[in-house]
Amino acid sequence: MPKSGIAGRLESVDFHAIGVSSDAKDNPFRITQQQLDQAAEILKLDPAIHELLRWPLREIHVALPVKMDDGSIKVFQGFRVQYNDARGPTKGGIRFHPDETVDTVRALAAWMTWKCALVDIPLGGGKGGVICDPRQMSQGELERLSRAYVRQIGHNIGLVKDVPAPDVNTNAQIMAWMVDEYAFMHGYNEFGVITGKPLALGGSVGREDATGRGVSLTVREAAKILNLDLNGARMVVQGFGNVGSWAAILLQELGCKLVGVGDASGAWVNPEGIDARALKDYVKKNNGLAKGYAGLGNEIPAESLLETPCEVLVPAALENQITEKNAARIKPRILAEGANGPTTPDADPILFANGVYVIPDFLCNAGGVTVSYFEMVQNAYNFYWDLDTIHERLEQKMVAAFHSVHEMAQRYKVHNRLAAYLVAVNRVAEAMHVRGWA
Ligand code: GLU
User: Fold this and answer.
1) N or C: which end of the chain has fewer CB within 10 A?
2) Distance CA 218, CA 358 (A)
């Protein structure tokens, strides 16, 4: 007896047949599929397009032999997932993390697909990851790992194929090594193969703070809608890497006061306010939020940070931080998701019921990939823009994306995450349809 509804229509691909890393309900790949299913139902998506969108189009699994400083060879596992390229070459960062799995990479690659569609840039979605702990590795080991990764995937990436970028624990220096290795492999420089590069190697001005700037622009737009005065508004930031630190600095420039901050080394609150810029300088020198920074205030248990009363909360660390367990105690006016996937599907209705205005991840943090796209365009023309041009074009993209989501949420009376899916999935589906994929 065939099953009815989505489950019935979509039983041709077995979840386990593609080698999932876990059955747990917080497996991010399962989460992205559920989120897509909800949107597909509302959009009455063609079943074949829906099914195709539930799975990565292509993925590469690699083993990377790396000579360590002690002379031994260590083999690292890595992935590159090219989720969907209907709208253009796949695009997305590379993470170095000890807890990376193929499913986190699949989920992140799906989210990149929605992100690029939402800000309406002509790119698909992809993501890469290597299971490693960069904090335990020397610069030399990291360089050899980065080059080994490109040697394995270097024939499957390129300006018109798939374009990596920085993400968790990767940065401009790592991108430079990768571009260099790619140039050796192919015999020519193709700077547009990777974005987030140093300025000396075809990077774009304004790329470093682009994700944080996008976060601050979407918070600014949300505050207008909510009639919330950002001047003196309390903000809490979880994660103080590239995204969290720049979001804090730029929101501070809009008047917000940083009253709580945390990273892997701990969490602190200070009602007097913490100077985000000084803290960023400190973190750069000391490799993390160490207790030594004067002005951090009182240390609190890491799990209480997100529950600290505030108007603007920016989770900018990893996925699955806001769940059905803590969501009822998390009540900012605006939840600006700087990280990818910080909120689980069970938490969304709780936040919605409590009147929290959620700026969903693939809208909130889309500034980075938007300027990455600008970087690709500049590389292709070999002609570089000034900072004002970047800021102006980024603002146009972020504001337009924000309002397309807000209007969709009003129209369908759904929360912003589902609204963001409705906008993005519709655009990807349209490209697939005109290509004749389904
Ligand atoms: N890693 C960033 C993200 O998750 C940027 C990706 C890119 O620039 O391609 O959006």
Assistant:
1) N
2) 10
Q: How far is CA 140 from CA 67, 93, 199, 309, 362, in A?
A: 9, 21, 22, 43, 33
Q: Collapse the DSSP code of 179 into the 3-class scheme (helix H, G, I; strand E, B; otherwise coil) and give the result.
A: helix
69 Cα to the center of ligand 1, angstroms: 30
> Which pLDDT value is given to residue 6?
45
- In the reported structure, the alpha carbon of residue 271 is separated from the centroid of ligand 1 by a whole-number distance in angstroms of 33
Is the whole model's pTM more than 0.85, yes or no? yes
- Identify which of 117, 4, 145, 71 has the alpha carbon closest to the alpha carbon of residue 369: 117
Q: Which numbered atom of ligand 1 lies nearest the CA of 167? A: 1
Active site residues: 127
- Region 105-127: mean pLDDT is 98
CA nearest 217: which of 294, 293, 314, 112?
314
List all residues whose CB is within 6 A of at least one atom of ligand 1. Answer: 91-93, 115, 165, 167, 195-196, 340, 365, 368-369, 372
In whole angstroms, give the CA distance from residue 58 to residue 157.
Answer: 12
Alpha-carbon gap, residue 425 to 163, rounded angstroms: 21
Residue 15: pLDDT band with limits 50, 70, 90: low
Please tell me what DSSP assigns to residue 133.
Answer: -
Answer for the pair 100, 379: CB distance below 8 angstroms, yes or no. Answer: no
At position 258, the amino acid (one-letter code) is L
| Pocket residue to mutate for ligand 1, from 91, 94, 95, 112, most atoms within 8 A of Cβ | 112
Token pair, residue 300, equals 């609190």
Nearest to 32 by CA among 77, 83, 91, 79: 83
Q: What is the number of the ligand 1 atom nearest to the C-alpha of 115?
A: 10
Q: How far is the CA of 316 from the centre of ligand 1 (A)?
A: 13
* Enclosing H/E stretch for 412: helix 387-412
Pairing between β-strand 266-269 and β-strand 298-300 as defined by DSSP bridges: antiparallel
Greater model confidence, 154 or 293: 154
- Partners of 236 in beta bridges: 260, 313
Closest CA to 200 of 230, 179, 222: 179
Domains of the chain: 57-201 (3.40.50.10860), 204-438 (3.40.50.720)
